[in-house]
Amino acid sequence: EAGVVQSPRYKIIEKKQPVAFWCNPISGHNTLYWYLQNLGQGPELLIRYENEEAVDDSQLPKDRFSAERLKGVDSTLKIQPAELGDSAVYLCASSLNSGFNEQFFGPGTRLTVL
Amino acid sequence: GQSLEQPSEVTAVEGAIVQINCTYQTSGFYGLSWYQQHDGGAPTFLSYNALDGLEETGRFSSFLSRSDSYGYLLLQELQMKDSASYFCAVKRNSGGYQKVTFGTGTKLQVIP
Questions:
Q1: Number of Cβ pairs closer than 8 Å across A and B?
Q2: Mean pLDDT across A36-48
Q3: B residues 51-110 near A, CB within 8 Å?
Q4: Chain B residue numbers touching A6 (CB-CB < 8 A)
Q5: In terms of Cα–Cα distance, which of B63, B65, B66, B91 is closest to B75?
Q6: Which pLDDT does position B50 carry in this prediction?
Q7: DSSP assignment, residue A40?
Q8: CA of B42 to nearest chain A CA: how many angstroms apart?
Q9: Which pLDDT score is estimated for A70?
Q10: I need a labelling partner for A92 at 20 to 30 A (CA). Which of A31, A102, B30, B87 fits?
Q11: Contact assessment for residue B87 and residue B22, using Cβ atoms and an 8 Å cutoff
Q12: pLDDT tens digits for range A77-97
């Protein structure tokens, strides 16, 4: 069984440029999470989807961040415009459902904003 | 408010036993998870405790005391490959939804 797939693995952009990250969760997993992880810190939730509905986006900086999960499968996280402080690893995770305790994480996208 | 505390770094000798503690303060507590993350890798699930007591899975065990808002991860027969960061994560009820919040992680270094 394939794991959570993310692309790209690395991205370097200049500040004020847009950037997008893509995630393909494990097949059959209804719940999808986007996390931000700074160096030496734990993952911080940005948004959680149940199927195609964003049920928790309270931590998403909506002035510059947006996300979508069309058809309740793949998801895209976008930043526009990027700022220097957005440099971090963006992790996607999925679980069977929100009541399931185990989250399966993808390898992440390491974003560097210059 | 809510908080999660765990030591930032722990060093232990190969073959030994190490305990990584996690104390939490939160409302609507459901349970405590543990994840392992190697440098540059993805977090991987280790365990989940919803009830008081010890859960054992091979060389790893996890303990929870709900009354003390405290848990720990116990790693036995340490191997060099156990060098990684370990995160505790609280699952809680927030606004009718189940929410998971991760701690800042404990970096474990296993030395020969």
A1: 48
A2: 95
A3: 87, 89, 91, 94, 97-105
A4: none
A5: B63
A6: 95
A7: T
A8: 5
A9: 84
A10: B30
A11: no
A12: 999 999 999 999 999 999 998
